[in-house]
Amino acid sequence: MSPPRAHQRANPRVPRPPRVYQRGVKKLTRVKFQDRTLHFTFPQNTGGGRRSAAGFVGPDQVPAFEGDEAWFEMELVEGLPWNYWRAVRQVEGPANA
Fold first, then answer.
1. Is residue 40 part of a domain?
2. What pLDDT score was predicted for residue 60?
3. pLDDT at position 9, please?
4. Is the Cβ–Cβ distance between 44 and 55 less than 8 Å?
5. Spatial distance between the Cα atoms of 97 and 89, rounded to a whole number of angstroms
6. DSSP letter string over 3-20?
């Protein structure tokens, strides 16, 4: 006689929100081609092994706003196959900017 099979979970796993690694306020600049937004960029520190002085954000990760530049509260979020930046909400820029 074969051994009994393991029981299915009574409660399936509840999906959890993605983990946030970093938060900050950053100035996003829109990159367009023929009136279409391709992506957004923001300056980032180039410490150590970083290859790019700019961070990139997809247009689907940024709320709509007027103009080509705006300040946003940003989060670096856990993702597969890599982490990504997303804009949480638009904020006023810092006083010293």
1. yes
2. 95
3. 57
4. yes
5. 18
6. PPPPPPPSSPPPPPPPPE
Three-class SS state of 30: strand
Q: How many domains does the chain have?
A: 1
Spatial CB neighbours of 57, under 8 Å, sequence gap ≥ 6: 28, 39, 40, 41, 42, 74, 84, 85, 86, 87
Question: Strand 84-90 and strand 54-57: pairing?
Answer: unpaired
Please identify every stretch of the chain with a pLDDT value under 50, giving residue numbers as ranges: none
Tokens 């705006």 — which residue? 70
Burial label, 28 (beta-carbon count in 10 A; 0-12, 13-18, 19+): buried
Q: Which domain holds residue 86?
A: 20-90
